[in-house]
Design brief:
By secondary structure, this protein is α/β, with parallel strands linked by helices. Helix content is 31%, strand content 19%. It has helices at 38-41, 57-62, 80-89, 95-107, 110-124, 145-148, 166-176, 215-225, 245-260, 270-275; strands spanning 23-26, 32-35, 133-137, 155-160, 183-187, 200-206, 226-237, 281-287, 298-304. The strands form two sheets. The chain has a seven-stranded mixed beta sheet. It has a two-stranded antiparallel sheet with strand order 1-2. It starts with 22 loop residues before the first strand and ends with a strand.
Length: 305
Amino acid sequence: MNFHTLSVSITPSSFLPCTHKTYLCSNINNESTRVNSPALSQLTTKKLCLFCGRRHFVQAATMATTLFPINPSSATNNNSDYADVINQFHPPKPDWYEEFYAWVMNSATESYEAEVAKYKSQVLSNLKGKALKILEVGIGTGPNLSYYATDSNVHVVGIDPNLKMEKYARSAAISAGLPLSNFEFYQAVGEAIPLSDASVDAVVGTLVLCSVKDVDLALKEVKRVLRPGGQYVFVEHVAAKDGTSLKFFQQLLDPLQQILADGCHLSRQTESRISKAGFSSVEFNTAFVSNASFINPHVYGIAYK
């Protein structure tokens, strides 16, 4: 549930077809950097690999700067390569649904955000002064930006499979005081993050792992893009305890929830998956959010690579 995506010289060699199942993009020193995303490697080698630049090929050819060594979601001529990956993990929905869902997330979550603010503040404030390059997975409408993106020297990339979230996220960035030159939004999924290995200081994800198709793969991708010692800051809702009435209703309503809330699962034991994902250490607390009804309890914390 998304309550919530350097100087680079463009040369002809930057756009050569990919002949191996390892993806390359330019880093801040204009050197080739491997992007070993398992999901990206599943793409057939008959297609072109994803190129460095912004989301459109024409823009990439004229672009002077990007924030990260990035392999964006739709930088190919026909945008089909990464679109296949997105569709694999997040099947396309009608345009009206994605527009409506983005509007709801932007307009109808004030009471929820007000209640979880104290929990978000505890974990996200830890990034200030420690993380200058931050990726937010499932950025949605950008409600978290005000917690960690208020400094002008912070650079943020937000990814989300719903492109309709972008206008709201950009507005949130402006409201947080983040220069738009320091913010990038890409249509992408957590199971195939279009960034280079060890390219960010921190990854932020709130109410994301409930809706990804493959939790373990998404966590593997988070670890991949984090630099050594980097932080994964999370706030997630998880399954209630076995044998409780809340768990019974979560299991009963889970199929309907997935349809109505863009793939959100009510009964995932996400805290266990994070703990077993191979981070060097994981710290989290549990909270009950009264405004979230069956979407309880919540866990919030930090995992270190």
